[in-house]
Automatic annotation (TrEMBL):
It comes from Larkinella bovis. Residues 171-269 form the HTH araC/xylS-type domain. PANTHER family: HTH-TYPE TRANSCRIPTIONAL ACTIVATOR RHAS-RELATED. SUPFAM superfamilies: Homeodomain-like (SSF46689), Regulatory protein AraC (SSF51215). Gene3D superfamilies: Homeodomain-like. The keyword Membrane does not apply. Keywords: DNA-binding, Transcription, Transcription regulation. This is Helix-turn-helix domain-containing protein. Transmembrane segments: none annotated.
Amino acid sequence: MGYQANYIHPDLKLSRFDGPFYKADVLFEQHLLVWFISGETRIIHGDRTYRFGTGDTLLFPRNQLVTVINYPKDGLPHQSVVMHLTKQRLTDFYTKNRVAIRPMQPPRFRTFDQHPLLKSCLASLIPYFDLNAPLPDAIASLKIEEAIAILRMIDLTIDHLLANFDEPGKISLVDFMEQNFMFNMPMDKFGYLTGRSLTTFKRDFKKTFLTTPQKWLMEKRLELAHYQIREKKRKPSEVYLEVGFENLSHFGYAFRKRYGYAPTERMAP
């Protein structure tokens, strides 16, 4: 059946996946609050990998690159309830609830494990997905404001994230690309996240790295894969998605072309 998304409101959906796995490099333009109903999720953010299962809750910050891999588990499909915390809704909320915020380092996503209040809030949405009509905005607004209030109660620093509406500023290309080269994103998205137009991004990249973004990304991904296979003794089938390849056969071809032997051969001939 593959992937399905059942929206009862533009900001509320039930996500379901029945296939062997679903992998995507994602960049959300708004914060997402996610409660996992079943299945397993692996999230790669920077140099760390996180795993989540049934009942876990997490908040994806906007404008952050992550790799998401979803798996069915224990005979059940991967399912999650997803709530969009849009800029407009948060602006309206914080206009009524003024707070003093402080600048933050680029935020990592926040996990709340199986917090009972968040679970209760998000689980209460499930009956609405059986409706044959859209959820009225008045009810959706109440549910979203409830979730925001719970987040503020259990995480006293959350305002500094949710009430910060700044767009990405110009940052170091070296630092950003070294941390995010494994993500398959359009070049204009890389430019946006580093505070540059596409033209300026390509120009600055060539000046900084003395090559094109495409060639540099391929080299970095193969270097990481080579390290994981040779030094960490991992299988190519475990590695290729994490380092930014979409297809195992394409990864094998590129690896052999770069190193002179197949990734299944643990040592060079």
